């Protein structure tokens, strides 16, 4: 998305980074006229990120994981080192 000069000025004045505003656009709730990120949405994202972190750590322990599939059917799963 393109940032207007007004937006960039307000971001500097109010201490918002492009990373944060992009985060709100990507993960926030689209509403009429823009995007919103409230405490409830942020908390849900924290819970999700903890779950992702836990699963990523579990995957690291397994090494390379391969899931064989044929069409819509999952056939088997195993670790490939």
Q: Specify Rg, calculated over alpha carbons.
A: 20 Å
How many β strands by DSSP?
4
The ordered string of helix (H) and strand (E) elements is HHEEHEE
Taken as a percent bin, the fraction of beta residues is 25-35%
Assembly status: single chain
Low-confidence stretches: none
Order of strands across the main sheet: 1-2
Tally of alpha and pi helices? 3
N-to-C CA distance: 42 Å
Q: Please estimate the helix content.
A: 40-55%
- Report mean pLDDT, rounded to a whole number: 94
Shape category: elongated
By helix and strand content, what is the structural category? Answer: alpha+beta
Main sheet summary? 2 strands, antiparallel
Give a short overview.
This protein is α+β, with helices and mostly antiparallel strands.
Overall description:
It is a single chain. The protein is α+β, with helices and mostly antiparallel strands. Helices cover 54% and strands 26% of the residues. The protein has helices at residues 5-14, 18-27, 39-62, and strands spanning 29-31, 34-36, 64-70, 73-80. A two-stranded antiparallel sheet has the order 1-2. A two-stranded antiparallel ribbon has the order 3-4. The longest helix has 24 residues, at 39-62. The protein is elongated and about 55 Å long. The relative contact order is 0.08.
């Amino acid at each position: 998305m393109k940032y207007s000069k007004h937006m960039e000025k307000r971001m500097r004045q109010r201490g918002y980074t492009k990373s944060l505003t992009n985060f709100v656009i990507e993960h926030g709730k689209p509403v009429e006229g823009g995007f919103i990120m409230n405490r409830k949405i942020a908390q849900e994202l924290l819970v999700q990120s903890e779950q992702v972190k836990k699963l990523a750590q579990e995957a690291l322990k397994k090494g390379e994981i391969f899931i064989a599939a044929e069409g819509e059917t999952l056939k088997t799963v195993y670790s490939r080192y």
